[in-house]
Write a structure and sequence with these properties.
With 454 residues, the chain is mainly alpha-helical. It contains 17 helices and 3 strands. Among the domains are: 99 residues, Cyclin A, domain 1 (Orthogonal Bundle), CATH 1.10.472; 167 residues, Orthogonal Bundle (Cyclin A, domain 1), CATH 1.10.472. A hairpin with a 4-residue loop joins β1 and β2.
């Protein structure tokens, strides 16, 4: 069968139709394809060897020379993403769950994620720690019937493991106990960490959105225009953390979520720095339509636009995400949070983005699920990958338009007209506010019970 590193075999860990042993031999050749996103026309097309400027585009994204390791590392992450089925398993579970019945537990999850981002900020940990923890938590525990206290303890256990994986910072268990307001004894925390480490069987490395964002920014940087800068990364982190707080974030591949965040970040940056090129390149092993990318970006922008000013209450689910952003950008007027919210509000009102949001999140998750099934599971068994690093796809037959349903607009077109938010979008925002009210009432009841006991 060849080298095991080169075989596309899903390593499932959840209750999914793809977690049975009968699929262990279902494999296919895996190739990465360069896609070009045009910010002028909002189109997304693969770059094929038949195009006249193929060599220019390919040499730019491959970073031929001393920096070619960036291209190879991106392909390594794409291969890791393709071999794991955490995203597919969770999307199946998320689509099967009646979210109205799980509203309280999902609101509790939002509070837990906000709390973890706060611990990351306090200890100056790397940006991807909370993201990594959330992906592990969703893959194994979210929507699986854990009690609130057990769920929080397991979340802390994942966070400690991931923090040790990404950082050299050693935080004592007594300190983590204080972070939980002494709800957990240090011995309980140590026990759950050892239990989860054995449960994961030393395998907790995942492809993360932040890693893809940094690689895409670096691959698209030139000598005259550097994109991988602290402020752009801080803006991308804000969008990623806002997405991670939502339960649907783990339903999407990290490379797709990173692309949507990249579109949002660079569209905002082009208002400040017009010299940023309108053509940017990304690498995928799947073929995602531009509507899916913009729909996911629109949902993130909608949440940011609906945030009530700069949160000042720690109970607000976006308190620490905005704190992290302001730590980096508070002294820059152009990067003011209110400017970001204004941009997001205008982005959501675009006709194509508005239409995708109106279809609902379940439609986007279902679309991503179908793409993963078609890309990573084929009816032809015993087909293996022959090279470790995924290759570019030079086949002219694959040079099909990704956005056939969206006609290409000429460069001299007038700017796209803004449309008012549709009724479905307003209903989504109203549902978010209702969920927040439910959580506040629940917290008030808990406070009253504690006062009564005292």
């Amino acid at each position: 069968m060849g080298d095991d590193r080169n075989q596309l075999v899903p390593c499932s860990t959840g209750d999914s139709p793809y977690s049975n042993n009968s699929l262990s031999t279902v494999q296919r050749p895996l190739q990465s394809t360069i896609f070009c996103y045009n910010f002028h026309t909002d189109t997304l097309e693969p770059i094929s060897a038949s195009s006249t400027d193929y060599q220019t585009h390919a040499s730019r994204i491959q970073r031929v020379g001393l920096h070619q390791y960036l291209f190879e590392h991106t392909n390594t992450l794409l291969l890791l993403e393709a071999r794991q089925s955490h995203t597919l398993n969770f999307s199946v579970l998320w689509l099967r769950t009646v979210l109205q019945r799980s509203a309280v537990s999902l609101i509790w999850r939002q509070s837990i994620v906000n709390w973890l981002i706060g611990i990351q900020r306090k200890n100056h940990m790397k940006e991807e720690v909370a993201q990594h923890c959330v992906r592990l938590l969703d893959a194994r525990d979210t929507l699986r019937g854990h009690y609130d206290r057990d769920y929080q303890l397991r979340a802390m256990g994942y966070f400690i493991l991931v923090a040790k994986f990404h950082n050299r910072i050693q935080v004592k268990l007594e300190e983590y106990s204080r972070y939980s307001a002494n709800a957990f004894d240090p011995r309980d925390i140590g026990h759950i960490v050892r239990h989860l480490f054995a449960e994961l069987n030393f395998d907790f490395q995942l492809a993360l959105p932040q890693e893809f964002v940094e690689l895409f920014l670096e691959l698209n940087s030139t000598e005259t225009c550097k994109l991988n800068e602290p402020k752009i990364r801080a803006l991308s982190n804000l969008f990623i953390h806002v997405a991670c707080i939502q339960s649907w974030s783990s339903c999407f591949n990290a490379s797709l979520l990173a692309t949507s965040v990249l579109v949002l970040s660079l569209k905002f940056m082009r208002q400040i720095r017009p010299e940023i090129p309108h053509l940017n390149y990304i690498l995928w092993t799947c073929t995602y339509p531009v509507e899916l990318v913009l729909g996911l970006a629109g949902y993130i922008a909608m949440i940011v636009a609906d945030m009530p000013g700069e949160p000042t209450d720690r109970a607000n689910h976006y308190f620490y995400a905005t704190k992290l952003y302001n730590d980096e950008c508070h002294h820059e007027n152009h990067f003011n949070l209110n400017h970001v919210k204004t941009f997001c509000r205008e982005f959501v009102q675009g006709s194509l983005v508005n239409r995708q949001i109106a279809l609902g999140m379940r439609s986007l998750v279902s679309q991503q699920r179908r793409i993963i099934e078609q890309s990573y599971f084929t009816p032809h068994p015993h087909v293996t990958l022959t090279q470790t690093t995924p290759l570019l796809n030079p086949n002219p037959n694959n040079a099909l338009r990704v956005n056939n349903d969206t006609p290409r607009k000429p460069f001299n077109d007038q700017p796209e007209q803004k449309q008012p938010m549709r009724l479905t979008v307003r209903a989504v925002l109203a549902a978010k506010r209702f969920g927040k009210q439910v959580m506040e009432r629940r917290q008030n009841r808990l406070r009253q019970d504690l006062i009564g006991v005292a």
